[in-house]
Amino acid sequence: HKSSTLNIPTNIDFTFIPPYTPEMNPIEQVWKEIRKRGFKNKAFRTLEDVMNQLQDVIQGLEKEVIKSIVNRRW
Fold this sequence. Notes:
74 residues; mainly alpha; IS630 family transposase
């Protein structure tokens, strides 16, 4: 964000992520895990089927797994 009017709380730190580096973006690692758990080599008949599968996979992600995926020390 480039706005000079942005008020950043003192407990928030920003980390520069270079462009085109999905391996450094934590959400990309979460999506990778979601694809691995519920979308690898699958075809769906309807969008509703996709949404149901996504919901099932997300609800099945254990807190510790998510922490291990997104906890990066730069």
